[in-house]
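Dear colleagues,

As part of the handover before I leave the project, I'm documenting each prediction I ran so the next person doesn't have to rerun anything. This entry is a single chain, and its sequence is reproduced below.
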Amino acid sequence: MDFNVKRLAADAGTFLSRAVQFTEEKLGQAEKTELDAHLENLLVRAETTKQWTERIMKQTEILLQPNPNLRLEEFVYEKLEKKAPPRVNNHELLGQSMIESGNEFGPGTAYGNALTKCGETEKQLGGAERELIHSAAINFLTPFRNFLEGDFKTILKERKLLQVKRLDLDAAKTRLKKARMADARAVAEQELRMTQSEFDRQAEITRLLLEGVSSTHAHQLRCLNDFVEAQTTYYAQCYQYMVDLQRQLGSFPSSFSNNNQSSVSGGASISVPTIPVSSASLPSVSGGHGSSAMSGGFNELRSSNGSRKARVLYDYDAASSSELSLLADEVITVSSVPGMDSDWLMGERGSQKGKVPITYLELLN
């Protein structure tokens, strides 16, 4: 019990000594040991890194999830260490509405078929967005958060301890100045040597941790590269999806075009820029009768140089003598001709022969 009382008294005395030293420094009545310039620069750099890491994280989260209520909900789930329930994004909701309306109008009609194709593409965009958010969370936001909640908290703890050691050192210096008797001076000098040693040791520990911020910058640079790569893949996917959709819609009859815009004749090409996008980087769409599955059948037909039976989805009026007019629900023979545009095939009906748009066809087994 006596030992505990003495220890509490000693701790109280140390705390009081630090408080007096700190107050006198603020009032300009006591000298303050300054940190060396290198250590001060490291402290400033670490604080700057922390502030900008927080700001970049916040803006990235806003970019990936603009809805503040949903961001708050995800934050709560994260703090509770629970997985947030799956949520359909806006692209997927729009896609589902388009597909349902297309089914309502009838997939055999031009408008219904177009709505279905647009809906499938919107769902593909939603899937690509989901992949971007997932990749950014793992490869970009998580490492940044780990720095703030791990390395920087350690730096902050050691920095506060360095401040304590610095106050102890300056308090010892003050006591040595005030000592008059030889015995008191001897005790004060011994205390000063001890506090100086503890301060130097803590300064070295803090310096080593602060110099580690350079490694943090190198790691965050790699994370930044990963984030840019994820965005590049995302925008390339979205671009490719929309180009494919635009080409398919470009084969629809001109009567389907908006009356307020210049009509696009059947089979007329749409000028779109091209970018080098590797097909390997684009995600596959499984299941259903979507555009990817449809394209796969036509690609097999082109590579085999053979012929297949195909059902006509809806009427098509030939725009030139090189094309073949079509009637909904009839069955024709189609084949691939070298050099022909990928959106067209050669169609045959008895003795009649001509180009037909693939968006009007459904391959039969």
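Residues 28 and 303 are 87 Å apart (CA to CA). Strands lie at 307-312, 331-335, 344-349, 352-357, 361-363.

All the best with the project,
I.
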